[in-house]
TrEMBL record:
Domain Thioredoxin: from-to ranges: 9-181
SUPFAM superfamilies registered for this protein in UniProt: Thioredoxin-like
Protein name as it appears in the record: Glutathione peroxidase
Stated family: Belongs to the glutathione peroxidase family.
Gene Ontology terms, MF aspect: peroxidase activity
Active site: residue positions: C62
Protein source organism: Vibrio aquimaris
Superkingdom of origin organism: Bacteria
Record keywords: Oxidoreductase, Peroxidase, Signal
Biological process per Gene Ontology, one example term: cellular response to oxidative stress
Signal peptide from the UniProt entry: 1-22
Length: 181
């Protein structure tokens, strides 16, 4: 009779561990997002919990659009160490006009982006993407232009912000990432 009791205790412990890990998702990752130019949705928590993230608001028709190349380089450098870049296209600054298909072409075909790109969304206001609502709540900063970069640690906290002019492969940004890995 001891075995069934031990089995139940073990199962109860496993369920408790599962429940507590499911409830520890950082609020910044507590949303489902649609991928760029796709019908596929991903649960941010499932995909990125426990990783160091660089969240970037992007635009396909901006003077900084060429940073996609450097963001991809950064992603390739650190992706096997628990890091990812996540792009969030936005037309808030009127530089991601046209269809999502056109934005996807710029990202995927013109610049060879392989890191996750979410569907176009707003960064501020009542229709703001929940990720950017959380960034603003935590850091007190909202993007002032396209290609603003927000470094988020493994616990889901914004630990650094970088303006559009900061190159993704700058030593300042790379050092900040390496401190979080």
């Amino acid at each position: 009779m001891k075995y069934p009791i031990l089995c139940c205790i073990s199962l109860l412990g496993s369920l408790t561990a599962f429940t507590s890990s499911a409830t520890t998702c950082p609020e910044i990752l507590s949303s489902k997002q649609r991928l760029l130019n796709s019908t596929e949705n991903i649960e941010l928590c499932e995909a990125f919990q426990g990783k160091t993230l660089l969240v970037v608001n992007t635009a396909s028709q901006c003077g900084y659009t060429s940073q996609f190349e450097e963001l991809e380089e950064l992603y390739q450098t650190y992706k096997d160490k628990g890091f990812t870049v996540i792009g969030f296209p936005s037309n808030d600054f009127r530089q991601d006009r046209g269809s999502e298909e056109q934005s996807a072409k710029v990202c995927y075909l013109d610049y060879g982006v392989t890191f996750p790109m979410m569907a176009r969304s707003s960064l501020t206001g009542s229709s703001a993407n929940p990720v950017f609502t959380q960034i603003q709540s935590q850091a007190g900063v909202k993007p002032k232009w396209n290609f603003y970069k927000f470094l988020i640690n493994k616990q889901g906290k914004v630990v650094a912000t970088f303006p559009s002019s900061t190159s993704p492969v700058s030593s300042t940004l790379k050092n900040a990432i390496e401190q979080q890995l």
